[in-house]
Specification:
Two copies of one chain form a homodimer. Chain A is α+β, with helices and mostly antiparallel strands and 344 residues long. Chain A has helices at 13-22, 70-86, 107-123, 175-192, 204-211, 217-225, 240-251, 266-274, 279-285, 301-305; strands spanning 32-34, 41-45, 48-58, 91-101, 127-130, 133-135, 141-150, 166-170, 232-235, 254-258, 292-296, 310-317, 323-326, 332-334. The first copy, chain A, contains ten helices and 14 strands. In chain A, strands 1, 2, 3, 4, 5, 6 and 7 form a seven-stranded mixed beta sheet that branches.
Chain lengths: 344, 344
């Protein structure tokens, strides 16, 4: 390491670091259609297309084993990768799962984790085809790579949004973040008063959203069935504002988002109040919802309006018009990425 | 975790654990040709075949940053995966690289690491197409997935060795292990006497074998050019005896290995003497050589004999005859896997 010139990674942030490290990345394989910089890469396999995505999950950073059942963790580790494949409008087919485990884990604990992995594979019709298993000095390490397929050039990137397109999002946002706040609060109470058992029965929805998310395979299927080809798509892992900015940057456009159109679940709204947080702020900056955020052409509006599980939350503008949110009170705020920065 | 029934992972070992966790793994995708249990998986992509392999490398387990230059580490993280693809007689085309890094890393340090990654990509004509970048509470975490291609059904597994086949290995064995011993010794000396700078100039070969291994793309190419289709193949990552046992188990055969035929480099022989180790033992149990171990039909003997970089070290027998090594003194020893167990 060069002691004279030292740039802190935190100063670039996760996306800045990725951009820095890959800015000179030249691809030489004729089959490389889409490289670093989207939810997944696309490679041409003899005229058909294969989609690849990978995630690294570390104990203490991405999950806390104190309130994360291993079965749920195994399930989630798989589905967050499948979510990236669906966000390309592709269908996941295969995964590899690598784990680094410390001595504190028993074979029975690993069985639980893999029960979750297999449950996700079964539900989403995906085969586990490989992986690596090793010891870890400290902490549980999980690396999953998902492979999917898509008909030639039928994948959707972050880069195709055009002026006038409608911005859509599936399901509801902010629930996963509030579920996490809830679990963190219960953990704190438990650590201070070990006798008090947390009662999460009243908050099943929020707990499920953070512990056992589901990728929106159903939305991708519905879009296909209804012949709607989104112009851009991304899954919401880091919060709505961060994802929307990704689409705007990659598509070279601006947008207007309406705060009152952001779909928020009643349980999330109530919990936000309990925590004295704005529920829209939780949706904008929370992350881990694994919903699909996408843009469609205006001509698809009628079709889209028939799906109650998809909300239209704004529209795409010219780049020069910037990226804004209109608040409930009618004020216009510039959107900034306050999503989760893994390096802060 | 079930406190009543607790099985220590160490009691199964890495391969036992993998077998345990995947014994009920059912594949549903028609395209899954070869799943867990070989150097790589094979999936059918619309009639052509795609090969996938993945490795997880953890600081303090797989590498020591005290004597591993980051550039070499980036290079090695890629090539150990490429080695798995070549061990299927396939050609690597794409990789994903995920890293978990702690605050102690600077952007400049990551640049060094990626310089190694890109150097490996360039040398082996492979595209970096994705990855994940995150913070790590402790230790540097690297996960690489390699994807390759192979003409339909032209891949070679560990399972095809037949009675009478010749056992071949490329290059030389044990050097990486002795290189590692050397670096560990120098580290210890340095920690005790920080003023003494290690002089590795005399041991460039051994240091290179552990720090910057090369996968045997050249051997795969030579085999193809000479129309030799190995009956079974594996890369030597865990030591010759462990790899040979994998082939015998998967192929349901026995074998005879000749100690005096095991290729050992002069530098390795000398260093083994210095450490008071048997050089054959280093080859048998050392690992990390990333040479190719394979079996061929006897009819290919003449062709094989023309390649000075390939040694014929034994032959395949019936399963009932067991797995043996004939020592230099003529004694017959049962081979047992003393390769590296990540859980010990």
């Amino acid at each position: 390491m060069d002691e004279i010139s030292r740039t802190e990674i935190g100063s670039l942030g996760e996306f800045g670091l990725i951009e820095h490290l890959t800015k000179n990345n030249e691809t030489v394989q004729a089959g490389t259609i889409l490289s670093v910089g989207d939810d997944a890469a696309v490679i041409d396999q003899f005229g058909r297309q294969c989609v690849v995505s990978t995630d690294l999950l570390l104990e203490g950073v991405h999950f806390d084993l104190m309130y994360t059942p291993l079965m749920h963790l195994g399930y989630k580790a798989v589905v967050v990768n499948l979510s990236d494949i669906y966000a390309m409008m592709a269908t996941p087919t295969h995964i590899t799962v690598s784990v680094g485990i410390s001595n504190k884990f028993s074979v029975e604990a690993m069985d639980e984790f893999y029960e979750g992995v297999y449950a996700a594979c079964e539900r989403y019709n995906v085969d586990l085809i490989g992986g690596d298993t090793t010891t870890s000095k400290k902490g549980f390490v999980i690396s999953v790579t998902a492979i999917g397929e898509v008909a030639p050039d039928k994948y959707v990137t972050r880069a195709g949004a055009g002026e006038g397109d409608l911005i859509c999002v599936s399901g509801d946002l902010g629930s996963a973040y509030l579920g996490l706040q809830l679990l963190e609060r219960e953990k704190k109470i438990f650590l201070e008063h070990p006798g008090v058992q947390p009662d999460l029965q009243q908050q099943k929805y929020l707990a499920r959203r953070i512990l056992k998310p589901e990728p929106r395979a159903d939305i991708v299927e519905w879009l296909r069935e209804n012949n709607i080809m989104p112009t851009a798509m991304i899954d919401v892992s880091d919060g709505l504002s961060s994802e929307l900015l990704h689409i705007c940057t990659k598509s070279d456009v601006g947008c207007v988002l309406y705060e009152d159109k952001i779909p928020i679940h009643d349980d999330a709204r109530a919990m936000a109040m309990e925590f004295n947080l704005g529920s829209a702020a939780c949706a904008l900056s929370g992350g881990e919802d694994y919903e699909l955020l996408f843009t469609i052409k205006q001509e698809d509006y009628e079709k889209m309006a028939r799906n109650n599980d998809i909300s239209i939350i704004g529209y795409v503008t010219k780049k020069e018009e910037g990226v804004y949110m209109i608040t409930k009170g009618g004020a216009k705020h510039k959107l900034i990425a306050q999503g989760w920065n893994a390096f802060e």
